[in-house]
Amino acid sequence: MELLDPHSSLILDEYRTRLPMYNELQDKIESMLRDELAKNELEVTAVETRVKTEKSLVGKLKLKGQKYASLSDITDILGARIITYYTDDVDRIAAMTERMFDIDWDDSVDKRRLHQLDSFGYNSLHYVCRLPESALAAPEMQKFRGIRFELQLRTTLQHAWAAINHDTGYKTGIEIPREYLRQMNRLAGMLELADDEFSRIRTEINDYRRRVQQLVQNGKLDDVMLDGETFKSYFDIRPLDALNKRIAAINQAEIQEVPLMGYMPVFVAFGCKTLGDVDRLIKKYSIDAYRLARHQLGNTGIDIISSAVGLQNICIVCIVHQGGGKIGLRRLFNALNGENSNNEMLAEITYQQAAELINAKER
Predict the structure, then answer these.
(1) DSSP annotation of 225
(2) pLDDT category of residue 2 using cuts at 50, 70 and 90
(3) Helix (H) or strand (E) holding 290
(4) What does the pLDDT read at residue 221?
(5) If pLDDT is split at 50, 70 and 90, which confidence band does 120 have?
(6) Which residues is 132 bridged to in the sheet?
(7) What average pLDDT is seen over the chain?
(8) CB–CB of 329/319 below 8 Å?
């Protein structure tokens, strides 16, 4: 290792002395960031922290050691990075960060604002931070007073570009011919476009969900096409509660909640195109579904039932009414339970129960 000048050597000695403190602060910063992200329900790709290695610091001091009066002037001894899925999450986490820490605005930089219109590259937000007074109240925290650290916020695609750019350019120390730089810039532009498009699509999907929820809440079910998202929204208003409670009352049973999404393909097979079609089918067969449940449970001691019992019985009586018979019921149980040998016997028993019920009703 090359000898440093006396001034840089003093900074290096200070680093060696304070390294345990920086390592301790690293753990605290990472814990604070993870806790706050969870509190704000912000999902991210990664939270990373690191303390600069001695080798890296020596390299920095060789290049510009005279720039720093002391170790405290080097803001990236401790660095943290939050990598997000979407570009708009960077701003949400930036707002969170500004609430958590004291920001040194003079040394912080938003590279997104500096980005030139005629070039491409990774954009990221760099904060230089300190712990606020509120975090330094405890005696064991006093040693961290005034210590600055860097926090970088970027998306996954921005992070990928930065890593690739570092590996192919800066890291090699070789000047890249313009031909390859142009190709790199074109690829970077594609990544930026993809970043923007992912955020735009997420925004539009969230808008779609809100529109669907509003239409469902207002009862405009014929205006809502049937798909996985709308099917879930429909059952979020709990249209089967009355039927399930009536079925539970047969044996004073407890209702155990289970997911209902597995029934969506069944309703598609019934020919449902909108939530209005689903709603009408449920209303049409709810009475027979209850009568079938009474027949099934009346002579049993079953005291726990699934919240899917009403919906399953609606599907059963619909299949029998439409002439699907035992084959249709076996397909239903295969769809709900997976294909297995028990479904044949279950279809046989269920068909006998449902057909007897329907025939008695029609006589």
Answers:
(1) B
(2) low
(3) helix 275-297
(4) 95
(5) very low
(6) none
(7) 88
(8) yes
Q: Distance between CA atoms of 341 and 275, rounded to whole angstroms?
A: 33
User: pLDDT tens digits for 29-43?
Assistant: 999 999 999 999 999
Q: How many whole angstroms separate alpha carbon 140 and alpha carbon 59?
A: 32
The pLDDT of residue 80 is above 50: yes
pLDDT (0 to 100) of residue 175: 64
**CA 292 to the chain's CA centroid:** 41
Task: State the Cα–Cα distance between residues 134 and 149, nearest whole angstrom.
Answer: 17
d(CA 332, CA 326): 10
**Phi and psi based region of residue 230 (left: phi greater than 0; alpha: psi -120 to 50; beta: remaining):** alpha
Taking the C-alpha atoms of residue 127 and residue 81, their distance in angstroms, rounded to an integer, is 10
SS3 letters for the chain? CCCCCHHHHHHHHHHHHHHHHHHHHHHHHHHHHHHHHHHCCCCEEEEEEEECCHHHHHHHHHHHHHHCCCHHHCCCCEEEEEEECCHHHHHHHHHHHHHHCEECCCCCEEHHHHCCCCCCCCCCEEEEEECCHHHHCCHHHHHHCCCCEEEEEEEHHHHHHHHHHHHHCHHHCCCCCHHHHHHHHHHHHHHHHHHHHHHHHHHHHHHHHHHHHHHHHCCCHHHCECCHHHHHHHHHCCCCHHHHHHHHCCCCCEEECCCCHHHHHHHHHCCCCEHHHHHHHHHHHHHHHHHHHHHHHCCCCCCEEECCHHHHHHHHHHHHHCCCHHHHHHHHHHHHHCCCCHHHHHHHHHHHHHHHHHHHHHC
Take residue 232 and report the two structure tokens written for it: 């879930």
| Number of residues that make up the chain | 363
Amino acid found at 247: I
Angle at 310 between CA 359 and CA 300, to 5 degrees: 75
d(CA 248, CA 245): 5
pLDDT of 1 over the 60 cut:
no
The model's pTM is: 0.67
Domain boundaries along the sequence of the chain: 6-172, 239-362
pLDDT at residue 350 in the model: 92
* Model confidence band, residue 119 (pLDDT cutoffs 50, 70, 90): very low
Report the CATH fold assignment for 6-172.
Beta Polymerase; domain 2 (3.30.460)
